TrEMBL record:
Keywords: Endoplasmic reticulum, Glycoprotein, Isoprene biosynthesis, Membrane, NADP, Oxidoreductase, Transmembrane, Transmembrane helix. Its EC number is 1.1.1.34. It is found in: Endoplasmic reticulum membrane. Residues 1-22 have a biased composition (Basic residues). It comes from the Eukaryota. The chain crosses the membrane at residues 45-66, 87-106. Pathway: Metabolic intermediate biosynthesis; (R)-mevalonate biosynthesis; (R)-mevalonate from acetyl-CoA: step 3/3. GO terms for molecular function: hydroxymethylglutaryl-CoA reductase (NADPH) activity. This is 3-hydroxy-3-methylglutaryl coenzyme A reductase. Residues 23-39 have a biased composition (Low complexity). Residues 1-39, 134-160 are annotated as: Disordered. One of its GO terms (cellular component) is endoplasmic reticulum membrane.
Length: 589
């Protein structure tokens, strides 16, 4: 099935390009029948050999200079006194470094220079986003300049419904040649961005190539309306479009005296409505209180020694409080926000697992803590030269896996959230009784989960709410595994008239800077909660508030779902809100 569409009429195209002369010239360039000569054509050797030579030169010279400088430091020789061979090595290092700035060689540097002028706004906006400390209202409202391939489409300003089936323009002759080269394997798909210098065009070419290779249509996957420059090198590789997930609002959630409208990205009917009902019950009872009682991201490398006794020597060295300050100083050099909190070791034969825990500011912090761990390992290598670093992560962290160490000791943010719900609200809003809720929670969430051998799963559906908020706010969805560890408690109070509800979540792993948080949609959801970017006055305040909001939303979701089960309304509600009334057979035909 040919999913391409005819280009717009010439009159419409010319009228569009008359208003954008820069785009017209760019489009004319793309229609040029003969490609421009590349600088790499003038090389005496193939490009991959040239790259290999410069790689070898760079690392060899760097290794030589580091050894020479180490010898000078040991011999108290001034570093500025250099021999002829050292001077030649420094010049070689500078020359090879300039070449390797492009990494992929002259092709990449040439494409970067070619697009530098018309990409100036994109670069400026990206630098602005990376600061994260600018207030939302003070940020300049700039849109990245659309690529020439997108100029034929009117869907950018069209209604939202038009994105369900985005028009795909007929490829130009240059793009057609690129598609054929990708299909044949002459051009690697991953290199399109560096070759073209246009992220949208690269995604468009890659998308068409995928359709031809697989023989399957991607007509329902949107391509237009997304800033592909914003994900280059940080969020997603080899994009061909983006997936649409609806975002609903639950709330207001009254938490610690403040109201929050909670964005939830989900395709599960009833989830937002149920969480919203829980928020209503909490609000009517005076709100919820959330306390963050621990904050520390972990990374646990594994090292190996020739003998177990030798491994135990490092064990005692790391556990000795007298050495902590030195290790903390080495660790904290990785970032101005990184602060080493504790080190925990575990021996397994001659393998030693070292669990580092540190504060990471408003970032989720995996990269930050990994850099700090690398610094410590390099420092320890001098004291323990027979230490073999098997891996920067030995699964004692434990990241993206259910683990007792996280459930017991915590990872990320540890939060407890509670609310006192009056009996009147339980009956009128939640449509059940206090005694029924308490009994169901004991039998289902506590006893039932114990029988199942659950690890951190003593709840009704914490993962539902955590996943929805994570996707909406740009968190790592895979970390929902440990972030959803939760125990829900319900107790009758005031002679059985009211109910005390709480959720304890020891490892909520969230951040408000880095990763997907800087994308436009996710950034907007963070801004809605008032936690966008880093907090200037109090580092880590925004990420901690986000963790509290996650726990408060989970409390609302637990309260509502448990009430629905206790009242026998679960199936009825899902049949009403989680089933489409449309005849799908007529739609697909």
């Amino acid at each position: 099935m040919d999913v391409r569409r005819r280009p717009p009429k010439p009159s419409h195209r010319n009228h569009h390009l008359q208003h954008h002369p820069q785009r017209a010239s760019s489009a004319a360039l793309r229609r040029s029948p003969s490609p421009a000569p590349k600088a790499s054509d003038a090389l005496p050797l193939p490009l991959y050999l040239t790259n290999g030579i410069f790689f070898t030169l760079f690392f060899s010279v760097a290794y030589y200079l580091l050894h020479r400088w180490r010898d000078k430091i040991r011999n108290s020789t001034p570093l500025h006194v250099v021999t002829l061979s050292e001077l030649a090595a420094i010049l070689s290092l500078i020359a090879s470094f300039i070449y390797l700035l492009g990494f992929f060689g002259i092709d990449f540097v040439q494409s970067f220079i070619a697009r530098a002028s018309h990409d100036a706004w994109d670069i400026e906006d990206e630098e602005e986003n990376n600061r994260f400390l600018l207030d939302e209202d003070r940020r300049p409202r700039r849109r990245p300049a659309p690529c020439p391939a997108a100029l034929d489409n009117s869907s950018i300003s069209a209604p939202v419904s038009s994105f369900m089936d985005p028009p795909v323009p007929l490829p130009s002759q240059d793009d057609e040649d690129l598609v054929k080269s990708v299909v044949s394997g002459d051009i690697p798909s991953y290199s399109l961005e560096s070759r073209l210098g246009d992220c949208y065009r690269a995604a468009s070419v890659r998308r068409e190539a995928v359709q031809r290779i697989t023989g399957r249509s991607l007509a329902g996957l949107p391509l237009d309306g997304f800033d592909y420059q914003s994900i280059l090198g940080q969020c997603c590789e080899m994009p061909i479009g983006y997936v649409q997930i609806p975002v609903g609002i639950a709330g207001p959630l009254l938490l610690n005296g403040c109201e929050y409208s909670v964005p939830m990205a989900t395709t599960e009917g009833c989830l937002v409505a149920s969480t919203n009902r829980g928020c209503k019950a909490i609000y009517a009872s005076g709100g919820a209180t959330s306390i963050l009682f621990r904050d520390g991201m972990t990374r646990a490398p594994v090292v190996k020694f020739p003998t177990a006794s030798r491994a135990s020597e490092l064990f005692f060295f790391l556990e000795d409080p007298a050495n902590f300050d030195t290790l903390a100083m080495v660790f904290n050099k990785s970032s101005r926000f990184a602060r080493l909190q504790k080190i925990q070791c575990s021996l397994a034969g001659r393998n030693l697992y070292i669990r580092f825990s540190c504060g990471t500011g408003d970032a989720m912090g995996m990269n930050m803590v990994s850099k700090g761990v690398q610094n410590v390992l390099e420092f320890l290598q001098d004291e323990f030269p027979d230490m073999d670093v098997v891996g920067i992560s030995g699964n004692f962290c434990s990241d993206k896996k259910p683990a007792a160490v996280n459930w017991i000791q915590g990872r990320g943010k540890s939060v407890v959230c509670e609310a006192m719900i009056s009996g009147e609200v339980v009956e009128k809003v939640l449509k059940t009784s206090v005694s029924a809720l308490v009994e169901l929670n004991t039998i289902k969430n506590l006893t039932g989960s114990a029988i199942a051998g659950s690890l951190g799963g003593f709840n009704a559906h914490a993962a539902n709410i955590v996943s929805a908020i994570f996707i909406a706010t740009g968190q790592d969805p895979a970390q929902n595994i440990e972030s959803s560890h939760c125990i829900t408690m319900m107790e009758a109070v005031n002679d059985g008239k009211d109910i005390h509800v709480s959720v304890t979540m020891p490892c909520i792993e969230v951040g408000t800077v880095g990763g997907g948080t800087q994308l436009a949609s996710q950034s907007a959801c963070l801004n809605l909660l008032g936690v966008k970017g880093a907090c200037r006055e109090s580092p880590a305040a925004n990420s901690r508030l986000l963790a509290n909001i996650v726990a408060g939303s989970v409390l609302a979701g637990e309260l509502s779902l448990m009430s629905a089960i206790a009242a026998g309304q679960l199936v009825k509600s899902h049949m009403k809100y989680n089933r489409s009334s449309r005849d799908m057979s007529t739609i697909t035909s």
